[in-house]
Specification:
It is found in: Cytoplasm; Nucleus. With 209 residues, the chain is α+β, with helices and mostly antiparallel strands. The protein has 4 helices and 12 strands. The chain has a single domain, classed as Glutamine Phosphoribosylpyrophosphate, subunit 1, domain 1, CATH 3.60.20.10.
């Protein structure tokens, strides 16, 4: 088994019309054995930017604190919140620093640009491999052990200009459909939909076998 699959877990992010969504499963495993069913892999970077970290659980904890420190330092130095695209490049450079002994994480970044940005409230999504090569997408990005199944589901369900509720339904069906076909992900899911006004967080039930 690959070390990337040791703890399992999957994350997907999608663009909508002036909104963006990110969802992850809740399983923490030790190969085929399930250890916990409440392991959220998505973390708030700012009020409008979220980071998904599927991969090795110890590296999830390490990188969560590393990015929290670096984002706080950016905010102190620049006296403003970090934009999603800028944060994606911060993630890339942080991973590339360790390219000869990499973190076993393939991050997903999503968010909305701030109201005072050149293009306000613009949806942004990106994914990275474990040494920081960024993939910018116009529709969706996936990562984790169910990524090939997520690609298939998302290709079939995603449409342009989805509203917040439609986007929630689309990303939920995409994730739940993929989780049923992957033994290393599942045991519930959590979905966050980010709009200019608020962030909506919903927990989903999935198969428990």
């Amino acid at each position: 088994m690959s070390i990337m699959e040791y703890n399992g877990g999957s994350v997907v992010a999608m663009k909508g019309k002036n909104c963006v969504a990110i969802a992850s499963d809740l399983r923490l495993g030790q190969q085929a054995m399930t250890v916990a069913c409440n392991f959220d892999k998505v973390f708030a970077v700012t009020e409008r930017t979220y980071l998904g970290l599927p991969g090795l659980a110890s590296d999830v904890a390490t990188l969560k604190e590393t990015f929290r420190y670096r984002v706080n330092m950016y905010k102190m130095k620049e006296e403003r919140e970090i934009q999603p695209e800028t944060f994606a490049h911060l993630v890339s450079s942080t991973l590339y620093e360790k390219r000869f002994g990499p973190y076993f994480i393939e991050p997903v970044i999503c968010g909305l640009s701030s109201p005072d940005a050149p293009v306000p409230n613009e949806p942004f999504i990106a994914a990275s491999d474990l040494i920081g090569c960024l993939n910018f997408a116009k529709d969706f990005v996936v990562s984790g052990t169910a990524s090939d199944k997520l690609f298939g589901m998302a290709e079939g369900l995603w449409e342009e200009d989805l509203g917040p509720e439609e986007l929630f339904e689309t990303i939920s069906q995409t994730l739940l459909g993929a989780l049923e076909r992957d033994a290393l992900s599942g045991w519930g899911a959590i979905v966050r939909v980010i709009t200019p006004e608020k962030v909506t967080e919903r927990w989903l039930k999935s198969r428990q076998d």
